[in-house]
């Protein structure tokens, strides 16, 4: 399965009552594919506010995204939880709906050891034929997949990629030693170019909601050997990459990107509690990023 170079972790549009806005979801999918040049969309990841989406809402989103995208991009379903049994059930249901892959986050809160994490992902992978992208994000889960465990999991035929938010050194180690065809994606926008330089394949991005075309240009410049051009584009985009998470102090994702999309005329609504909308100070800062 080729998920491409530019993968967008899509926000979930809500209406004024805080329910999924299906008309705006359709418009957002069109915008991300046609205007921002996303190869793949992750539905119901952290950026999609998965912790506050019900199981029914997630399945409805997977079904809707598959049907509306209609082959124009790949659809990865965020089906991972900190319960192996629940993750298996969700992944099987997503497979029935026709998604192209599943994103499985490291189990959060219960803090399994490396063997526990291996067995968790192994159990889910062997329950489905879907291509699996692991998601290692220590800042959110506390537990972190080691290089050795990721390489061990990469031997399972349908575990095909990892979204990696660990240090650059781990990205390089995985890229160097993984089986042919296993791909490493950066999970941090600001690390897109550095991780490409050490062997990553692409980015699972938040900023691509706003600057996807520029990010694709940067990636393609680097891959074609235009390193200086890629560096200039990275330098230009870096304030946006950082600002969407530090506006002007750390802001929970997707608060800033949802505000930015609304400013750009895409009515994706607000966020669900326990997240809260951007403050007036944060709004001013985010507007400055878009200027």
From TrEMBL:
Locations listed in the record: Cytoplasm
Enzyme Commission (EC) number: 4.3.3.7
Residues annotated as binding pyruvate: 47, 204
Pfam families from the UniProt entry: DHDPS (PF00701)
Pathway, per record: Amino-acid biosynthesis; L-lysine biosynthesis via DAP pathway; (S)-tetrahydrodipicolinate from L-aspartate: step 3/4
Primary site of residence: cytoplasm
Family annotation (InterPro entries): Aldolase_TIM (IPR013785), DapA (IPR005263), DapA-like (IPR002220), Schiff_base-form_aldolases_AS (IPR020625)
Site (Part of a proton relay during catalysis): 46, 109
Known catalytic reactions: L-aspartate 4-semialdehyde + pyruvate = (2S,4S)-4-hydroxy-2,3,4,5-tetrahydrodipicolinate + H2O + H(+)
Active-site residue numbers: 135 (proton donor/acceptor), 163 (schiff-base intermediate with substrate)
Keywords: Amino-acid biosynthesis, Cytoplasm, Diaminopimelate biosynthesis, Lyase, Lysine biosynthesis, Schiff base
Assembly and binders: Homotetramer; dimer of dimers.
Functional note: Catalyzes the condensation of (S)-aspartate-beta-semialdehyde [(S)-ASA] and pyruvate to 4-hydroxy-tetrahydrodipicolinate (HTPA).
Family: Belongs to the DapA family.
NCBIfam families named among the record's database cross-references: dapA
HAMAP family: DapA
Protein name as annotated: 4-hydroxy-tetrahydrodipicolinate synthase
Native organism: Paenibacillus physcomitrellae
């Amino acid at each position: 399965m080729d998920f491409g170079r530019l993968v967008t972790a899509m926000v979930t549009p809500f209406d004024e009552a805080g329910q999924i806005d299906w008309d705006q979801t359709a418009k957002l999918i069109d915008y991300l594919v046609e205007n921002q040049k996303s190869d793949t969309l992750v539905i119901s990841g952290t950026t999609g506010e998965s912790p506050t989406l019900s199981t029914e809402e997630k399945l409805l989103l997977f079904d809707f995204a598959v049907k509306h995208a209609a082959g124009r991009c790949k659809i990865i379903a965020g089906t991972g939880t900190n319960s192996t049994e629940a993750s298996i059930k969700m992944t099987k249901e997503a497979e029935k709906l026709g998604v192209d892959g599943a994103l499985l986050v490291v189990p959060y809160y219960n803090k399994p050891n490396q063997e526990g994490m291996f067995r968790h992902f192994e159990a889910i992978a062997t329950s489905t034929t879907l291509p699996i992208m692991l998601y290692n994000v220590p800042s959110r889960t506390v537990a972190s997949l080691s290089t050795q465990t990721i390489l061990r999991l990469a031997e399972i035929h349908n575990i095909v990629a990892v979204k990696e938010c660990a240090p650059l050194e781990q990205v390089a180690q995985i890229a160097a030693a993984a089986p042919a065809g296993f791909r490493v994606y950066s999970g941090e926008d600001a690390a897109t170019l550095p991780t490409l330089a050490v062997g990553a394949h692409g980015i699972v991005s938040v900023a691509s909601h706003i600057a996807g075309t520029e990010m694709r240009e940067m990636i393609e410049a680097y891959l074609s050997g235009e390193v200086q051009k890629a560096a200039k584009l990275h330098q230009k985009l870096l304030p946006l990459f950082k600002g969407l998470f530090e506006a002007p102090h750390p802001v929970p994702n997707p608060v800033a990107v949802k505000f930015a999309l609304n400013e750009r005329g895409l009515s994706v609504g607000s966020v669900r509690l326990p997240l809260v909308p951007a403050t007036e100070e944060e709004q001013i800062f985010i507007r400055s990023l878009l200027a």
